[in-house]
Amino acid sequence: MKTDRPFSSILVTGGAGFIGSNFVSTALPRFQGRVLVYDKLTYAGRVENLIPLRKNPRFKFIKGDIVDGARLLKVFKKFQVGAVVHLAAETHVDRSIDGSLPFLVTNDIGTYRMLESARIHFNTLRPKAQRQFRFLHVSTDEVYGSLGQKGSFKETSPLAPNSPYAASKAAADHWVRAAFQTFGLPTLITHCSNNYGPYQFPEKLIPLTILNAVEGKPLPVYGDGLHVRDWIYVQDHCEGLWRVLQRGKPGETYNMGGQRAGEKKGKTTNIRMVRHICRILAELLPPAINPSLRRRGLGRYQDLIRFVSDRPGHDRRYAIDNTKIREELGWRPGHTLESGLSKTVEWYLSHLDWCRAVQEKNYGRERLGLKV
Ligand code: NAD
């Protein structure tokens, strides 16, 4: 992919997380400068995710909290940051129901501190460097709330967040917009749909389903399972972020979803997604040779599915209209749900050690988010 902006260094917050670590792998081969990952390493951020990248001399990891403004200022200055990809956040909706405060602190105060530090740094840059500088805020389609039976989210759709997670991301979006409108910081916002792929923490639907199935544990499906999500393979999202960073227009918002033109496959209900994973698993690890299933006398992964009580405030349907980013920046997702999901299941099956390591001591795949 062509590089329009020869950034000397890109600061990636949350780069030890799921999308962040995939983004760093996408970005490093595409330009000559440095990638600085700035990450607090919460339960979701893991140095294990960065092991394949650490050998690269243009990669640097800095452990730090985005709420720490003084530290951020030092990093901006010391490394003469040329662009920011801001991914650091608390991200799990169920955890935001159990306790919202970390979401307010990291997603809102943290984003505010990022914007302030970037602005102070930006004001010290020479005009040429200022023209190159970008602050990309990575947000979510969840800020738009829930759709009815028809339609899809456009960049002009009103923000109507329903969960504490979505509310904190929507508030951050407003701060980013204000930094552009008031201070002229060259910001960009993306709203992407649900990602899946390698390095996703096993609290999220797809890795949780894969790992529970492998271990012969129940596969929980919230409510009636008919909630619709517009799934996107993480690498496609990262390619889109790179495209927006390179060619996006400051002050603009771009939506990204998994739907490929002429296909209906990106979007699916949660129950169909879980059944789909069961089918792929049955090919890669037939139940007959999986001791966890044989012990329970089960011949099919589907027999592990259990409908459980719904998530409070659970959005019914998300769908993204990709028209703007496709027409203006030439981006479209490369993977079908079929191809992305097969790669994902294969990755988890070949990285069971990673799965054990990231869950050790802090997560046992228990149900979260029921507190009301
Ligand atoms: P993740 O939970 O896997 O990773 C989040 C990362 O942020 C972790 O490495 C964590 O250690 C770090 N972090 C958390 N608090 C921090 C703090 N105070 N200071 C510094 N680092 C901190 O999340 P993800 O799924 O990779 O999502 C990344 C971003 O993309 C988030 O902003 C999220 O809202 C957005 N997003 C995610 C999806 C999705 O489906 N996963 C979809 C659209 C947008």
Descriptive notes:
With 372 residues, the chain is α/β, with parallel strands linked by helices. The chain contains 13 helices and 13 strands. A seven-stranded parallel beta sheet has the order 3-2-1-4-5-6-11, sandwiched between helices. Strand 1 (9-13), helix 1 (18-27) and strand 2 (34-39) form a beta-alpha-beta unit. Helix 2 packs parallel to helix 4 (101-124) and helix 7 (205-214) crosses helix 12 (337-349). The mean pLDDT is 94. The structure holds nicotinamide-adenine-dinucleotide (NAD). Nicotinamide-adenine-dinucleotide (NAD) is lined by residues 13-14, 16-20, 39-42, 44-45, 65-67, 87-91, 106, 110, 138, 140, 169, 192, 194-195, 201. Nicotinamide-adenine-dinucleotide binds at residues 13-14, 16-20, 39-42, 44-45, 65-67, 87-91, 106, 110, 138, 140, 169, 192, 194-195, 201.
Give a short synopsis of this structure.
It is built from 13 helices and 13 strands. It is α/β, with parallel strands linked by helices and 372 residues long.
Label the overall shape.
globular
- Identify every distinct bound molecule in the structure, by name, code or SMILES: nicotinamide-adenine-dinucleotide
Say how many strands there are: 13
Global Rg? 20 Å
Largest sheet: 7 strands, parallel
Termini Cα gap: 47 Å
Count of alpha and pi helical runs: 13
- SS content category: alpha/beta
Indicate the mean pLDDT. 94
Record the strand order, biggest sheet: 3-2-1-4-5-6-11
Strand share of the residues? 5-15%
Name the assembly state. Answer: single chain
Taking pLDDT < 50 over at least 5 consecutive residues as the criterion, the unreliable ranges are: none
N-to-C SSE string, H for helix and E for strand: EHEEHEHHHEHEEHEEEHEEHHEHHH
Give the % helix.
25-40%
